[in-house]
C-alpha cells in the first residue's frame, strides 16, 4: 500500500479482535493516547497473564446495546484529560482497521458515556502507523475513509462470535474431582480463566436493583459463564445459587429449574412421558394404603424401587418378588422417603447406555455393564464401561430428553428394550472420567467449545438475562 492515509477529524473504524465491526472515532492529534469507552471493567486471571473483561456501547445513541470484550492488560497508567483531571486507566493493545489499513494500537479504557464519540484516536496511534507515510489529518474535514454503518450489529448475533477469553465459574464442592480438573484444564488450554466456587460458601444479596452473589467476604464479579456441578445432597441450595447467577444475567450451562427437575425423578418422568419419550413403566403413590395397588400396577415380575433424588445408583433396590417389593416400599415409607416403583427391564441384561449431550448433540456414548451379582450398571457401583455405537433412535431419544428438561449438558441413561430405547435417568451433573476413558474423546473440550459459541456471543441487550440451559 503506497497511498497515504488521509483522515478527517472524525472517522469510521473497526476493532475486529474486540468484535467491533463499526465504531466512530474522534481523531484528536492534541491527545497523546487513544481511548475507548468501557464500563464494568473487571480485571481477572492469574498474576503474569492478567486480563480485562469490559463492556462497550458502540452506538452512542443506543446505550441499551452492549458488546462484551476481553483483552490482555498491557499497562495501567495515569492519564490527564483535557479538563485537567487525572485518572488511572488500564491499557490494552488491539488492531484497528481504517479503510484498507490495519495496525496495532494501544487504547486506554475509560467511561465515555454521554460523549458524542465513544472512541478517541490520539497522535501516538498515528505516529506508530507502520505503512509508508504518516497519516495526514485534515481537521476541517470528516469521514475521508469509507463509511461504515451500525447496521452490521443487527445481524451480528447470527454470525460466529469473535473469540475472546471468558471468565468461567464452576460451582462445585469437589475441586479435586476428575471432572472438575478436566474442565479447568480444557478452559485454560483455550485461554479462558476458570475459577472454582464452593457452592455452600456462596451467600446472596437479593434485591430488585442489583442482585449479588458473595463469596469468602467479597462480592463476586461478573462471570461470562457458570458451570453448575451441584451434588444431590445440596440440590436446594445449589439451585438457589444458580438462580441468583441467572438473576444477574450470567449464562448458566444448566439452569436452576432444569437442575431441580432432573433431580426430581417423578417430575422428570412426568415431563418425559408428556412428550412421548419411552421409559420404564413407573408408578408413584403417597398413602400407605395404596402400597399393594401401587405394586399391582407393575404386574408380575421383578420391580425397581428408587428414591426420587437418588444418584450414582444409591437408593435403588431390585425386588424379585411381590412380597419383597412390599417390604422395601414399607421400609422407605418408614423413613418418610419419597420413591418411585418402576418395571425392571430384564432384556437390558444389566446394561445401559450413557449418552453425553452437549448443546443439543450426543458427543459421546458408552455402554455400562453391571458387575457380577449386581443389577446396577453405575460405574460408582463397580460397573464397567466400553465405547458403543448408538442407533438413530437412541441418539434422538437422548437429545430430546435433554431438551425437554432444558439441560445444555446432560448424561442421558438409556435401556435397550424390545420396544425401543427407554430413558432411565437424565443427569444434570454427569461425570467425565468414565466416558473420556472409554471413548478417548475430549468431552471437556467439546463442552468449552459449546460454551464459547453461546457465552461469547458478541452482542446482548442490557439487563436481559441469558436463557438458561440452552447451549
Write the layout of secondary structure elements.
Blueprint: E1 6-8, E2 10-15, E3 20-27, E4 34-37, E5 39-44, E6 51-56, E7 65-72, E8 75-80, E9 86-98, E10 101-110, E11 119-121, H1 123-127, E12 136-138, E13 167-171, H2 178-189, E14 193-197, E15 202-205, E16 212-215, E17 218-219, E18 225-228, H3 235-247, E19 251-252, H4 256-263, H5 265-274, E20 282-283, H6 291-296, E21 303-307, E22 316-319, H7 322-334, E23 339-343, E24 351-358, E25 361-369, E26 384-387, H8 392-405, E27 409-417, E28 420-427, H9 433-439, H10 443-455, E29 459-461
Helix pairs in contact: 2-10, 3-4
Domain ATP-grasp: 269-452
GO molecular function, one term: ribosomal S6-glutamic acid ligase activity
GO cellular component, one term: cytoplasm
Overview of this protein structure:
The chain has 471 residues and is α+β, with helices and mostly antiparallel strands. Among the domains are: 153 residues, Beta Barrel (Cathepsin D, subunit A, domain 1), CATH 2.40.70; 108 residues, Rossmann fold (3-Layer(aba) Sandwich); 64 residues, ATP-grasp fold, A domain (Dna Ligase, domain 1, 2-Layer Sandwich), CATH 3.30.1490.20. It is built from ten helices and 29 strands. The strands form seven sheets. It has a seven-stranded mixed β-sheet. Strands 26-25-24-27-28 form a five-stranded antiparallel β-sheet, sandwiched between helices. A hairpin with a 6-residue loop joins β15 and β16. α2 crosses α10 and α3 runs antiparallel to α4. It is elongated, with a radius of gyration of 28 Å. The relative contact order is 0.12. About 1% of the residues have low confidence.
Amino acid at each position: 500500500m503506497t497511498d497515504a492515509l488521509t483522515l478527517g477529524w472524525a472517522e469510521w473504524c473497526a476493532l475486529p479482535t474486540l468484535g467491533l465491526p463499526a465504531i466512530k472515532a474522534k481523531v484528536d492529534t492534541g491527545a497523546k493516547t487513544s481511548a475507548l469507552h468501557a464500563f464494568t471493567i473487571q480485571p481477572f486471571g492469574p498474576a503474569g497473564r492478567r486480563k480485562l473483561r469490559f463492556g462497550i456501547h458502540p452506538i452512542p445513541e443506543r446505550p441499551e446495546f452492549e458488546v462484551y470484550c476481553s483483552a490482555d492488560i498491557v499497562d495501567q497508567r495515569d492519564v490527564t484529560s483535557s479538563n485537567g483531571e487525572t485518572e488511572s486507566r488500564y491499557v490494552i493493545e488491539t488492531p484497528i482497521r481504517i479503510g484498507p489499513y490495519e495496525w496495532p494500537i494501544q487504547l486506554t479504557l475509560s467511561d465515555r458515556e454521554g460523549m458524542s464519540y465513544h472512541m478517541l484516536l490520539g497522535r501516538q496511534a498515528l505516529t506508530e502507523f507502520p505503512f509508508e507515510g504518516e497519516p495526514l489529518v485534515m481537521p476541517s474535514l470528516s469521514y475521508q475513509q469509507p463509511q461504515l454503518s451500525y447496521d452490521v450489529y443487527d445481524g451480528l448475533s447470527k454470525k460466529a462470535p469473535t473469540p475472546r477469553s471468558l471468565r468461567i465459574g464452576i460451582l462445585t464442592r469437589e475441586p479435586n474431582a476428575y471432572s472438575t480438573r478436566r474442565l479447568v484444564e480444557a478452559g485454560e488450554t483455550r485461554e479462558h480463566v476458570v475459577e472454582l466456587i464452593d457452592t455452600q460458601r456462596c451467600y446472596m444479596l437479593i434485591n430488585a436493583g442489583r442482585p449479588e452473589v458473595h463469596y469468602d467476604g467479597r462480592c463476586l464479579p461478573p462471570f461470562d459463564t457458570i458451570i453448575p456441578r451441584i451434588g444431590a445432597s445440596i440440590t436446594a441450595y445449589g439451585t438457589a445459587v444458580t438462580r441468583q447467577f441467572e438473576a444477574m444475567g450470567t449464562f448458566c450451562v444448566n439452569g436452576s429449574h432444569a437442575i431441580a427437575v432432573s433431580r426430581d425423578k417423578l417430575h422428570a418422568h412426568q415431563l418425559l412421558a408428556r412428550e412421548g419419550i419411552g421409559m420404564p413403566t413407573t408408578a408413584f403413590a403417597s398413602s400407605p394404603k395404596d402400597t399393594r395397588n401401587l405394586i399391582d400396577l407393575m404386574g408380575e415380575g421383578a420391580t425397581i424401587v428408587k428414591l426420587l433424588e437418588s444418584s450414582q445408583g444409591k437408593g435403588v433396590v431390585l425386588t424379585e418378588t411381590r412380597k419383597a417389593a412390599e417390604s422395601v416400599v414399607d421400609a422407605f415409607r418408614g423413613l418418610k422417603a419419597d420413591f418411585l416403583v418402576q418395571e425392571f427391564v430384564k432384556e437390558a441384561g444389566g446394561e445401559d447406555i450413557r449418552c453425553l449431550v452437549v448443546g443439543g448433540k450426543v458427543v459421546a456414548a458408552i455402554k455400562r455393564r453391571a458387575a457380577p451379582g449386581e443389577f446396577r450398571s453405575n460405574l460408582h457401583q463397580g460397573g464397567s464401561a466400553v465405547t458403543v455405537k448408538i442407533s438413530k433412535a437412541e441418539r434422538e431419544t437422548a437429545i430430546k430428553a435433554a431438551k425437554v428438561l432444558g439441560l445444555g449438558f446432560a448424561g442421558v441413561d438409556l435401556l435397550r428394550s424390545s420396544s425401543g430405547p427407554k430413558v432411565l435417568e437424565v443427569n444434570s451433573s454427569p461425570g467425565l472420567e468414565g466416558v473420556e476413558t472409554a471413548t478417548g474423546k475430549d468431552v471437556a473440550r467439546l463442552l468449552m467449545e459449546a460454551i464459547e459459541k453461546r457465552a461469547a456471543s458478541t452482542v446482548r441487550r442490557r439487563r436481559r438475562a441469558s436463557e438458561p440451559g440452552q447451549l
